[in-house]
Amino acid sequence: MDNSVIKTGKTVEEATNAALEELGVSSDMADVEVISEGSDGFLGVGKKEAEVKVTVKDGAADDAEEDDTYYGDDENYEGDAVTEAEDAAVNFVAEVLSGIGIHGNLDSYREDDAIYISVTGSECGSVIGRHGETLDAISYMTNLIANKHSEQRVHVHLDVGGYRKHRERIVINLADKAVSKCLRTGRDVVMEPMSPADRRIVHFHLAEVQGITTHSEGVEPRRCVVVSLDNK
Fold it and tell me: Order of strands across the sheet with 30-36?
């Protein structure tokens, strides 16, 4: 079968679903490139139809040929079955990318109550923003959209251009340095102001470090993690 197809529709979701149906694969077996979101505005108000290019991932074509039915509730994949919440989250991110002129490739999968969305492509810097502020805002909105389409609470993990993983390594390194200074001086160490996501990384990373405790102080956007000796 053809490994790629371009489709149009009234919305990105409609165009994507049409392409997936023609290819005979599910959304987790294909990469979706939004060519046109179909509007001049931010969220799709306009007369121009949405246009997407959907490409079957390497190795997925063979799996699809063995079972020529489109995905359903009884099919099993490496992650959990695609849900309405995941589709809504992916489509929202695709619309945002198109609205700011970025044609990235989206991959997504779901495990338990978590939805993971990864965006790759050139010129992703404007999606990330300074210290990830734009990415955090998009992630917040994506979580709202996903939970509107889910009866149970879900959490969306959105990463663009591998920024989250890169940032996590930086934050962990800063946390380790703060611990070393705290143990050496015996005094509290106030880390640099961080986003809620970065602070969670610090708290989680240092939770099992013996003799150390952490808490947050200050008011957004200058809220900081304080690393202290555990006097218990």
Answer: 4-9, 50-56, 30-36, 105-111, 114-120, 155-160
Which tens digit of pLDDT belongs to each residue from 118-159?
A: 988 767 777 888 778 888 889 999 999 999 998 899 999 999
C-alpha 156/C-alpha 172 separation (Å) is: 22
CATH homologous superfamily of 165-229: R3H-like domain (3.30.1370.50)
Question: What is the third-level CATH fold of 4-161?
Answer: GMP Synthetase; Chain A, domain 3 (3.30.300)
- Return the pLDDT at 165: 86
Closest residue by Cα to residue 89 from 159, 25, 172, 179: 159
User: Token pair for residue 72?
Assistant: 């359903």
Query: What helix, strand, coil percent values describe the chain, rounded to 5?
Result: 40, 25, 35
The confidence band for 163, taking pLDDT boundaries of 50, 70 and 90, is: confident
Question: Beta-carbon neighbour count of residue 103 at 10 Å?
Answer: 17
Give the single-character DSSP code of 48.
S
- Report the distance separating Cα 218 and Cα 113, nearest Å: 31
pLDDT per position as a tens digit, 196-214: 888 999 999 999 899 999 9
